[in-house]
UniProtKB/TrEMBL annotation:
Lineage per the UniProt record: Archaea, Candidatus Iainarchaeota, Candidatus Iainarchaeia, Candidatus Iainarchaeales, Candidatus Iainarchaeaceae
Coiled-coil residue windows: none
Protein name from the UniProt record: Prepilin peptidase
Transmembrane segments: 36-62, 98-124, 136-153, 159-179, 252-274
Domain of life: Archaea
Species per Swiss-Prot/TrEMBL record: Candidatus Iainarchaeum sp
InterPro entries on file: Prepilin_IV_endopep_pep (IPR000045)
Amino acid sequence: MDLPLAPIAFAANTIASGIAAYTDWKTGYIFDWITYPLIGLGIILSILNGQWIGIALGIGIYAIGYFAYKQGKLGGGDIKLLAGMAVVQPIYQGQLFVLSVLLVACIVACVGLCIQYVGSYLLSKPKINWKEPRKRLGFGMVIALIVFLAYSFDQGIFSPIQAIVLLLAVGMGILFYMLEDEIKVHAFLKRIPLEQVEDDELLAAEHLSHEEKQKLGKDIPALIDRGDIARFRHAGMHTIPVYRDLPKFAPFLFAGVLVVYVFPGVLSAFIPVIA
């Protein structure tokens, strides 16, 4: 990016991600008045700079993110924020900016969410069946992670600090994965009246009764829209199970933006330099 445009990209991504983190934390939403101007600014910067990689990245991120959104894995505002940041700042210090931000955000999220939700769940003193297939797979993943990090450290691929950070973040992520089903029930599962269902509510389909599943058939949505509410009513349902108060991801994206801008190259061992 040409020097005159670099401060604009820095300010735009930092301010937009910061505001998005605040609104997501307070309301659960990342509003269009945050993301659309960011995307528009990115398009203008791309035109002024004569580079189209940012627009291409933004389109790619939106396409992939939309699939994740429809599966209930990522919020629509998060996707537009990521796309906007990619358009505004495609490359930073020779690396894909949004990939660096996303990696840092995932590392911080793995640690933070594991401490919060796994800690809260374990403090409730549950009876955990560690012999379940998901738990056994998790143990196997931990062993594979330790072997991989030991080999990488021995070969000089990772520094001691990088290896410790990876072990901590990925290890906590694996622990969260092992206990995910129990945590979702403990922290997020609620059965609410249809009148209280909001747009893009995440349906806890696995907690529908057998009778409810038979009434709805095979086409059971992950995200609920107005048409789905009409279907539920037609099926004689008055309440449905949903996941609410899910973790907010924008604060972690904001942390990723700050880390990548303040400590450029911090992820050089994980992300190849392309320019």
